[in-house]
Amino acid sequence: MEIGIIVYSQTEHTYSVAENLQEKLVAAGHTVNIERVTTAGEVKSNSKDINFKNKPDIQGYDSIIFGSPVHAFNLAPAMKAYLEQIPSLQDKKIACYVTKGLPFHRTGGNQAISQMKKLCQSKGGTIMGTGIVVWRGGRGKDISELVQKFSRLF
Ligand SMILES: Cc1cc2nc3c(=O)[nH]c(=O)nc-3n(C[C@H](O)[C@H](O)[C@H](O)COP(=O)(O)O)c2cc1C
């Protein structure tokens, strides 16, 4: 299966999780590309006006994993804007994950995942699974659980 891992990452946490996922999915026989969403200039937490430097085209993939950090208790604005601008996810299998700094409840993980799910579903995508990696805490365990979980989805 052709799987695209589409990642927005400022300080490489989310990107490094994508690399872990890629390794496992390739070992399971899939073709896996990681593509970055990048912006021109810095994006403020509450920004809606985003200029993309790289906006990956997902149409060639059967399945897509979207990865993003949590910013200000929400999905990072760049990933939100990217998902809003995708024309269609019809007939695509989708998984979403976020990385976040704070090891406490109600600090944006579930909120960001719920925003990602709603946006993907609004484009016709089928959500297969989701996951949250807490960076300041037991991230090793979170990452290996996410990789195990996502490797069974496709
Ligand atoms: C502007 C900004 C806002 C953030 N807001 C939150 C937050 O609300 N909750 C949280 O748990 N972590 C928050 N973080 C921490 C990041 O989500 C965390 O470090 C994440 O793993 C970074 O991913 P990246 O390295 O892929 O950019 C914030 C980080 C930044 C830079």
From TrEMBL:
InterPro entries attached to this UniProt entry: Flavodoxin/NO_synth (IPR008254), Flavodoxin_dom (IPR026816), Flavoprotein-like_sf (IPR029039)
- Classification via PROSITE patterns: FLAVODOXIN_LIKE
Name the Gene3D superfamilies on file: 3.40.50.360
Which intervals hold domain Flavodoxin-like?
A: 3-154
Recorded GO molecular functions are: FMN binding
Recorded superkingdom: Archaea
TM regions (residue ranges)? none
Q: Which Pfam families match?
A: Flavodoxin_5
Q: What is this protein called?
A: Flavodoxin
- Species in which this protein is naturally found: Methanobacterium subterraneum
